[in-house]
User: Which sequence fits this backbone?
């Protein structure tokens, strides 16, 4: 779930005004057994704010005070519609901001060899640079210097720790095994031994990127290289491809007047989604 920026500011201002507290809001909770979507802690009793919070901030469905924290539940239809509008308006820029636009940053690493760990470091470096560019940073040499390393150094505040990849092969062998696995899986899909080499290469690269970067960057990866037909990265790309085909078919259907155009997001009533399963999807 998503904490709306305007709501976050309004909530902090509300608590500052009525309780003279500067609160630290925890991110919304995803697990159903955790109490509340949003939670913040306080040594001061805030029971008297519960009713007024619901009255003043319309996005709040309900809230409750425990011994040392306040739990808040948001009206799902309101925050979902707000987030959906922002996604549609922002497109691929969704989630980015220009707070550091123009800031120069460099990303370097302290090790380069033929280990799979170093391959992970290089992929992480490329990902960080791409994220920096999307958020307005300038990639250069004079400025903030981020160092990617598998060696932890608490004294370096600009260190980005990259966890080791436990693997009994070097990069060349790893890529070869991955290519054999993807080739075999692709052949099974189309019932043929022939498949375009360029597509196999792209699938291999995407599969490797997913395998090495889908795990939190500072966590160790225990590599299990096999030639089975199980590959999470390929599975995700397959589903993405299918969704693209469905969307393209729909757009063609709209052009041919077979389907109606989608309604404006503002007219969609998310209140009709009443189950948690619907919102999770």
Assistant:
């Amino acid at each position: 779930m998503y904490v709306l920026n305007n709501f976050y500011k309004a909530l902090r201002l509300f608590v500052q005004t009525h309780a003279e507290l500067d609160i630290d809001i925890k991110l919304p909770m995803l697990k159903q057994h955790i109490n509340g979507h949003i939670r913040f802690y306080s040594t001061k009793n805030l029971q008297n704010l519960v009713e007024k919070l619901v009255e003043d901030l319309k996005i709040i469905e309900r809230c409750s005070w425990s011994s040392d924290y306040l739990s808040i539940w948001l009206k799902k239809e309101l925050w979902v519609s707000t987030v959906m509008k922002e996604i549609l308006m922002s497109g691929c820029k969704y989630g980015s901001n220009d707070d550091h636009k123009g800031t120069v940053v460099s990303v370097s690493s302290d090790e380069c060899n033929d280990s799979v760990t170093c391959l992970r470091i290089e992929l992480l470096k490329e990902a960080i640079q791409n994220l920096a560019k999307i958020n307005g940073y300038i990639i250069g040499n004079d400025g903030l210097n981020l160092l990617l390393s598998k060696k932890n150094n608490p004294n370096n505040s600009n260190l980005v720790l990259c966890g080791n990849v436990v693997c009994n092969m070097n990069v060349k062998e790893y890529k070869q095994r991955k290519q054999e696995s993807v080739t075999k899986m692709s052949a099974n899909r189309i019932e043929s031994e022939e498949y375009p080499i360029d597509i196999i290469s792209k699938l291999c690269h995407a599969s490797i990127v997913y395998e090495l970067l889908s795990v939190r960057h500072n966590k160790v990866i225990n590599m299990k290289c096999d030639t089975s037909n199980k590959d999470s990265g390929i599975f995700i790309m397959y589903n993405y491809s299918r969704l693209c085909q469905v969307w393209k078919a729909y757009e063609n259907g709209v052009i041919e007047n077979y389907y109606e155009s989608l309604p404006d997001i503002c007219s969609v009533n998310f209140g009709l989604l009443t189950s948690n399963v619907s919102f999770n999807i």
